[in-house]
Predict the structure.
Amino acid sequence: MISIQTPISDDDIRKLKVGDPVELSGLMMTGRDGVHKWMMDTFIIKTRQPQGDDLEVYEAIKPLLKDGIIYHCGPVVAGLDTREYRFVAAGPTTSIREEPYQAEIMKHFKIKGVIGKGGMGTKTLQGCRDVPGVYFHAIGGAASYIAQSVTRVVGVYKLDFGVPEAMWVIEVKDLPVVVTMDSHGQSLHQVVEAKSNQVFQELLKK
Amino acid sequence: MKDYTDRILELIRKTSTDLPKDVEERLKAAVEKEAPGSAARGALETILKNVALSRKNATPICQDTGTPIFYVKYQEGISTLKLRQQIRSALAEATKRSYMRPNAVNVMTEKNSGNNLGGEDFPYMHFEEVESDELTIELILKGGGCENVGAQYSLPDMRLGAGRDLVGVRKVVLDAVQKAQGQGCAPGILGVSIGGDRGSGYIASKEVFFGKMGKSNPDEKLAELEHQLTDEANSLGIGPMGFGGNTTVLDTKITGLHRLPASYFVTVSYMCWAYRRGRMTIKGDEVRYE
């Protein structure tokens, strides 16, 4: 088991290979569909003018994301009325929906790690080479178990996006993941898909 | 009519936090089929730890508490209008207590309602009057990740060489599994409907999830196809979470509907391993959960 602490150095990222089990600790931020689109439209391709507290939030998340991790997760959160937030269930969501945005966002914010499930495509794999970064696969559905690794909810941005879509800043201890896409162009997902496709083509002939 | 809100709240709590034993047994059996030290085995072991922990602490098995799908069988004299209100109140309360994640998003305003209630369409409810002295409420929580990998095929499908027969059905179902890879949180359960129209096909492909695991299909040919599909899907080697491995599908359930002469739909609904299924039966003052 390899232990990694955020912020992560380029050297540590380059040492990681597909198949490595890793325990992650430190600060990270959740972000999924709404957040990726908001980041892309407002700060990268700039098809949308910043509104409300957009610029303020942008400045606040920049240092968090630099050499940091974005977690594709829409948690169940307790303590919403008292603002004493606590993660009750916090497994990964399907990452492929962020494929149109992820590589650009990694480059823009210098994000070193993406946690999610199901893997991502060729654009993100190239992003992992360029930054350099890796894709960490958490166990889909293991929400109560993973929530135990979240030791503290530090804060939240854009709660008006809804609880699942907001940016939750969390501190984690030994969050268990597996590297399935590395900074050397390797992807477990590509390998499994190619192999299963061979079997599938044979089955179609029967 | 009695107020069943608290009973329904308990049904929601149990369904979201306590995985049915038959599903857990299948997952336990799947662990033994993966190589020690493999990512696939590690994934299944983590899943089982999570199942036990969720049950113990009454916390959601998965943070995506899904679309709540309620099926109600009621006897004469029950008001479905009142039951509808009670289900909605119970769901809002379950959300407040963190058994459920607020999951209803208005597509026009993009606002999350915050309490899992969204107009007439959310949660999904189906009512059927039956001749019985029992009131039965069944609930399935179906997550979005697995819902997204569902698929519908119109046969014949030239690309797959799938004609209008069970051989064709087999080909398109395997295509759906191949396309899903690990995205639907494998190992999954396949709900398959043959026939119907586009709407009824999807509904029927989900209704099969109310049945227990491994319950044999009364139609011999369909029973055989179910086994064959589970075996062949597993031979693809996609494995738990798509990590590569021996268990991709835990079970396959097929149902047939009447179809129009012109149409031959095959609809596949994919249920993630977190196959959250609950049932409550009320007879007089007695309540049974299973």
